[in-house]
Amino acid sequence: MIPSETIAGDRAYAIATAVRAAAFDDDLLRVGEPQEGWQRARVDPMAVVDAAPGVTLGERWKLVAHQWYREGDGIGVVFAVPIDAPDASPVLHDDGRFDLPASAASSLSVTLYPSGSEESFLARGLLLRELHEIGALWHGARWGNHDLVTGPASLPDDAGSWAWEGPAPESFDPVMEVDAVGNRRVTFFTRTGLGSERIVEHADVHRLRDGSVTSSHRVVAHGTGGWVP
Q1: Which of 44, 128, 137, 176 is within CB 3.0–4.6 Å of 74 for a Cys-Cys bond?
Q2: What is the distance between the alpha carbons of residues 123 and 5, in angstroms, rounded to a whole number?
Q3: Are 116 and 8 in contact (CB under 8 A)?
Q4: For residue 185, what are the domain limits?
């Protein structure tokens, strides 16, 4: 591995905040809950891409987004298709299932290009998560219940007692490493109270060969409390 590069915590937090704000459904406040069933997503996925610094959508692609809502719960589907695709519509089932069109890209990651900076790879990983949460509400929301944490790796003091699962990291600030073939590995930390209070380490591997991103995570600390939707 090439020596790691730390991404400044304040800059990482600003990136996460901007991308999440762009992915928020403002109509929840202005209009109210979505209609029942499937519909075009009320959030423009390109607005979310534009909020991710250093990340661009490949010029031959366009993003399509739909959301499904029923009795407080919501899910979404965002995918990429060639701009000249004759049929970009998914098959949408009444129970919330969907089938993507044959022209859809194998994943969003292969259509989203980072500029090459450490911040752009962090932004790409956060962007992918926010795009997949467009339309997600209540029981359908997962990533939306995670908040980026940065700075010194100290445990919170606002949720009862906390305990590390293993050796404590030196810092919560994101770090990027580059391996011998150019793959980038970005690690960062979030806090969530979904199910139980936890600090979670996330690791995204951005592969140079095909543009794919593989993600993993592990809990590094537990706190008392939490909530269940």
Answers
A1: 137
A2: 15
A3: no
A4: 2-223
